[in-house]
Amino acid sequence: MKRVRFALALALFGLWGMAGLSAPAWAEGGTPAVASLRVPGATDDRDLPWASDGEANVPYVFHDPAHEGRMTGFEYDLMQTISARMGRHGRFVQNGWDGLIPGLSRDLYALVIDGIEMTPEHKAAVLFSRPYYVTVDRIVLRNDEKGLDTLDALKGHVVGTIKSTAAERLLLDHDPANVRSYDEETNLFSDLKNGRLDAILIDEPIALYYRSDDLKLVGPPIGRVAYGIAFPKNNPGLRDAVDSVLGDLMSDGTLHQILARWNLWTPQMADYTGDQTLSTVQPTAWVDYRQTMERMSGSSVQAMVHRYVSFLPLIGSGALMTLGVSALAMVLAVAMGLVLALARAYGVAPLRWLAGLYVEIVRGTPLLIQVLFIFYGLPAFGLRLSPFAAGVLSLGLNYAAYEAENYRAGLLSVPRGQMEAAIALNMTHMQALRLVIVPQAFRTVVPVMTNDFIALLKDSSLVSVITLTELSQTYIRLSSTYYDYIGTGLMVGLAYLLVGLPFVRLARMAEKRMGRVVAKGHH
């Protein structure tokens, strides 16, 4: 989970002029009418869209390893139950960790649930429900390690944790020089196994689900962590309605049952909810997950073949998304790039200046910033684009600047006498450009344009930050789910190769046919 960028997003969201924090209905004794609720992103009066980052997010909300197309997790079960109690249909919306809160600002969905810690900084940015889960931090060691079972004992040792969490703050207070902070849980546990870390301090649910047979939990519980459901500050009514349902789930034992199925009912939750009853619910979800992971992550040939065959539909879908976004973006880049090049080469002074300014601004700013601005920034001006449209537009506008320079070079390579000869033959200036200059220039830049499309295919991985699941996002999901970076990486790399190979051949044919040496790379 990208907690650093998420914390920044929360801070920005809090500054975007939302109303102040109001007291929830459960604190005042009121229960709002469900029919009068404002539900952003809803498609009808029964829809309740909610967001989480379902990529590598065990046990919160994640793709079922036994059925990759199905979502599961204890937060997923909780949201389905809350939605049903409110008489609505819960609809999961995937968004990256750092995009969850900005998505609230543009009304993509009504609420966010993703193990968000209810820190003072977070509370200043969004409205929170009452805590739906209270937990602790735990120390994780390799089986052969001893003695590192308290915070004091960890001093002087290299300890890893997740960025921008309560665990990180605890470690920094005790021994800041030896803290290693991570974005992703899988990388964190991998480094502990490989000896790059001496220990891990992390939320107990994560420790429970990511711990393998060669790792162990040690020592007493440390600290206190509370998770809350996040809402926009200008929608206290929906927050109050969800709070009312959460209170009912706690009092009637439904929350207890959900957590027990995932092996997450703890003494901390019993104390928090006041539910001290002895659970008779079996941890079926926990057992199913462990058994599936053991079966799918096996090292036998049969297990690997089964695992990799199951990846093919997802990789194929990601490849189609990558190709579709890239192809449409390249069409836009070619068309707009030609217009910019003509404006710079033959336009009047104001057009030359504007075209040059556009090219310099786009080439001088990172593509990632442009993607995020188009998807999250444009709604402030009333322009809301789907993730697919935003991805195509951002890539197309970016590559248009580079294509413009390629085409301008091609236009300038056409001898001036060609224009003069066309004018002498009684052509207008526009006819000369359309029929004489542009065709010659286009032949010159075709090989470069083909190579640019191959580069665009790879740069399309950046659209994963706005919820599009293309090849790179598919790799992140599969590799972090099954802890298989080599085999999955080879399959995704092969998919990129197969998608781009026809265009590589096309570029070589164009070079050979036109007798041009293509300059490699423009970035």
UniProtKB/TrEMBL annotation:
Listed Gene3D superfamilies: MetI-like, Periplasmic binding protein-like II
Function noted in UniProt: Part of the binding-protein-dependent transport system for glutamine; probably responsible for the translocation of the substrate across the membrane.
CDD domains: PBP2_peptides_like (cd13530), TM_PBP2 (cd06261)
Location in or out of the cell: Cell inner membrane; Cell membrane
Top-level division of the source organism's lineage: Bacteria
Name of this protein: ABC transporter permease subunit
All copies of domain ABC transmembrane type-1, residue ranges: 319-507
SUPFAM superfamilies for this protein: MetI-like, Periplasmic binding protein-like II
PROSITE patterns: ABC_TM1
Membrane topology: Multi-pass membrane protein
Record keywords, A-Z: Amino-acid transport, Cell membrane, Membrane, Signal, Transmembrane, Transmembrane helix, Transport
Listed transmembrane segments: 319-343, 355-378, 485-504
UniProt family annotation: Belongs to the binding-protein-dependent transport system permease family. HisMQ subfamily.
InterPro entries reported for this sequence: AA_ABC_transptr_permease_3TM, ArtM/GltK/GlnP/TcyL/YhdX-like, MetI-like, MetI-like_sf, Solute-binding_3/MltF_N
Signal sequence coordinates: 1-27
